[in-house]
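WARN no homologs supplied; continuing
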Amino acid sequence: MIKQILFITIIISLSFVDISMNFLYKNMTFVFPEIEVNQADELEMYGLNKEIPNEIRDVTLEALSYFPELLHTKIHFQYKENIKGSVMQAQPKVGSLMLNNKKNRRYKIKISRYLQLKDELVPIEDLPHDVLLGWIGHELGHIKDYVNRSAVNLMGFGAKYYCSSRFISKAEIAADTYAVSCGLGDKLVATKNFVLNHERLPEAYKNKIRSLYMSPGEIMSMVEVEVVEESETD
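OK structure emitted
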């Protein structure tokens, strides 16, 4: 009899504990620690098929994130001590033009190791973030322009680029247009303003930018058109 009473008492006690715990958990809010994801880790996916110097890896991956369609495109970002008349240049690798499949082509973006000012050399990675982002974005605009061209077309493109200032301007406007369409308009403006307003950049280089490239105002007008068109499609 005593054992039966003890057993019934234990059962009732356990039932009370179970009901109490269910009520307690039902009315509690559990807060789980959030796992922080570093932006650099998120951008690493854009490093697929790319060779990038460590000093500019983060900003280059950020620029590439604006061009997801170039994810599988093979691009070698390479430092050069001196690029005549330019800070960066985007080109197809000539040998890869002989390949039948466009997907197997390789491209290179040559980047001056230092920005040449009148009185000093500035490491390219020391430029303001948005300026460097816009500069790299412009070159990726060239790559976007190249990827769908045939090998014969690209060889003709290269010949015209070196022979005609009018063609150069047309090609540079196309690169800016692609970059703006990918969302880099404000970064391009930052780059143009940096060049045109920098007191210690050679005047000859500024004149080249003025004569062959879109002005900051023209880029902003293009950005405004993009915004209007996007709002109309929403």
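The two ends are 78 Å apart (CA to CA).
OK
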